[in-house]
Design brief:
The complex is a heterotrimer. Chain A is built from 15 helices and eleven strands. Chain A is α/β, with parallel strands linked by helices. Chain A has a domain of about 140 residues: 3-Layer(aba) Sandwich (Peroxisomal Thiolase, Chain A, domain 1). Chain A has a nine-stranded mixed beta sheet. Chain B is mainly beta. Chain B has a single domain, classed as Beta Barrel (OB fold (Dihydrolipoamide Acetyltransferase, E2P)). By secondary structure, chain C is of the alpha/beta class. Chain C is globular and about 60 Å long. The two termini of chain C are about 15 Å apart. Classes of the chains: A alpha/beta, B mainly beta, C alpha/beta. Chains in contact: A-B, A-C, B-C. The interface between A and C is large, with 64 and 65 residues.
Amino acid sequence: MTKKKNRNVGIVGIGMTEISSHKEDQNQPEMINEAVRAALADAGITLKDIDCVVHGNMELFEMVHQPDLWHMIGTGALGKPEFRITTGGTTGMTLIAASDNLVASGMYDVVMAIGFNKLQEAGSTTGGITNMADPLWYRHLQTGALTSTSANMTIEEFGAERARKAAMKHRIMMDKHAGLNERAHRRLGLEYNQMEDLMKNSPPLIGDLRLIHMCSQSDGACVMILASEEKAKKISKKPVWIRDHIAVHREETASNAYFPILSENSHRAAARKLFARNGITNPVEYFDVFEMYDPSAWWGIEWLRDFFLLKGDEAIKMVENGDWDLDGKVPVNPSGGVTASNPISATAMLKPAEVALQIRGDAGTHQLKREVRHGLASGFGGVMWTELMILEKDLNWQGV
Amino acid sequence: MAKNKLNTQAEELISIQVVNSIDYSFPTGPIMGKWFQGLKEKKFYATKCPSCGRTMTPPRGCCALCVVRSEEFVEVGPKGTVENYDIAYYASPDPLTGKVRSTPYAAVFVRMDGSDCDIFTHGIKDEDIPKLKRGVRVRPVWNEVRTGCIEDMLYFEIDA
Amino acid sequence: MKRVAICAVAQHEIKGNIWYKRFQDMLLDILEDLQGETGFTFGGENGVKNVLTCSDDFFDARTISDNAVNDVVGAANYRGEQKMAQEGLNGIGYAMADILSGHDDVIYFAGHCKESLSASRNQIANMAYDPFYCRCLGMDYLNAAGLQARAYMEKTKITPEQLAQVVVRARQWASRNTYANEKTQLNLGDVMYSSVLCDPIRSLHAYPVSDGAVAMLLASEERAYEFTDNPIWITGFGNCMDDYFMGRRDLAASSALKKAAEQAYKMAGIKQPRKSVNLMEVMDCYAYQQPMWLEGLGLCDEGKGGDFINEYGPAKYNVNLSGGMLAGRPLMIGGLYGVAEAVLQLKGQANEHQAADVNCAVIQSTTGGAGQFQTVVVLER
């Protein structure tokens, strides 16, 4: 069932900026340039080795039209082929999926993908997201990506106490992971004994969604360099292979996304199709790490069930048992996840970047203790869109 | 981290505050045009998919599930059932007007009567917010002056 | 190398202000046209699974502008979609890569742009400049073109009459093209004495405000014949970024275009474009750009754009038989309309503006100030 890929593609360079809500010391191209230099240094190559640049963000957050034109000062695209491909929140991983296609096609050997947002520059990220709604009827109602519809459904299914505890446990676990990651934006130092206090006292945003549950507003850039198998083996001692990826989109209206009219959400559909065509029957057993785009703790606990094709309360039980923790069955978000760091159009690239660092064993202070061979990374965007990607340490899955 | 190598004093860094304003006009097209005309007459028009039969309000000219043109109009509602809701305590600016609303306010996700596979969203009357739960019945409250726009309907209220 | 085909194209007629339709309505119209012609469907074992779109957040005034069109491009029911957030011709290169990579074998590609939504497309172009310096100076694509026009006219000594000829000819061809926007016929004097827009660019030297949408179906060589008897092959693609700061560029020479053309010709195996290419679609937003881009594409000697016009070069190479950008095409999909025209020409379906014996067509597009970013595609029958 595995798709026949024209040629294999490996990740050979990863660079990211510090992620922060304060980057007044850099303008947009300067911030991008920091990540570009870091990725080139990581790969041990120079701009001359780059055949093509891929650039993406959401323009209305920085209010720059076709920003790659100005940003070429920092991207290094001068005199080179370039693509600009975006899909909203999933943009960061779309850029990696697109770069994978560009390299696998044989048209380019070495491609550098750049994802970034400098959310500070727009002032209000929630206002910026609300701009996605239809100006004729929904823009006056939407409150960005803030919603408690997921919390409402989870509470109805599992009872308020169990649901609220699970969401808060997930959130504190994410903060503990972020505490180990020096690049994470928010490292709050939360402890599990604060659960009851936070469940009561964190300021409510929307219904049961409280400030502590929600992702941050961050500035940052992430850059990844992908190369053909032949080049990747020359450039890097430990290239990480992109095995497969899938994009799943849903209809425009947020109404139908926030109350699911169909039985399957985009995450479950993506996981079901991607695992089936790669012969993965037990994802909990197969994957050594999962970097999930979890914009809020409520969505986090809901979506774990979907991504791992679990039923009933299996995923929540795993939250309660600590099975998603760093030493659990499947470590989720050793980076600290999106509630810790969210420079939106870089966010979905930080997911495969983190997985690749874990596979290489180069995650530093937050390196997992176990050997990481098989990694999964997800992106979330649009109204309820998914981008899902499998990364591998070894080139041994062909013919599965 | 590669910090500014010029060793610039923080006081010398500046941010330029700019309000970017471009005027736009958004056509309704015939489908949304019909819908707004309906609101003026206190009616909820929906389009019906000729393939799967679902009705959509506000009407879409194409059923996203079947990818077929859907231009037959039917009426749905005016009452419906709340399937989900958001009670907002954090007021974000309305990007159309820049206005910030007083909180709390709420949006309800309503399955309109006669519309089985589509959800319509609007606000709910402030006094009804404490009574919100999934499954409550709601009815629209209309603006006295209706001009054919989304404000023709003020909000839903609980249909006691 | 395996080949990738464009099976069929569908164009929405271009108008200055399609106020009676939303862009969703326009996209549905051309989707139906294309499905009618090719019989392709979405979903199932053989249906389209991935969609490519082209639109722009600023022109549509929407964050994630592709979100607004997922329903009408067939992506919304659990299918994939990616947006080319740059001029649509680049999507031809990306769709080609997607198919060659083995990830997809059929791609539906639809782009739209309604310049009429905003009060001023120049205000949008102004937002393409950095907020500290060039934006404050009031830079936009029009006055960047004004600077380039002056540099090019000084270098080539091209005359106002010659530039007027380019516009008059564009309108003549536009009158034969069902989809073209501005078909009002002009004489040389109309153009030469039209009001000054941005010296030396006069109002009739500039492309009119335009709304439109284009769709096409692309497929692998193995599957192309399921949808058409005469697929058109994408044999060359190239694009290139030039410097943002105009002061660091030779404005009268299009170095990025030369590099983009070099890549595309190399991929297509074209050594002498003047011998191989029968039809050109260039993105001439302003009259001076038609000869200038043809220089960059190697069809015309460097600095000889004026002579090229005198010697009927545009007729010889079948340049812009659609009317081109000068007859009105929306900015973000100017090159995609060029592809649509070239595909019709290569298939022999261009009706009243059909050229004879077209085997190889070159399409060029540009984004940014004074041709900062350039894209070239080669199509063959």
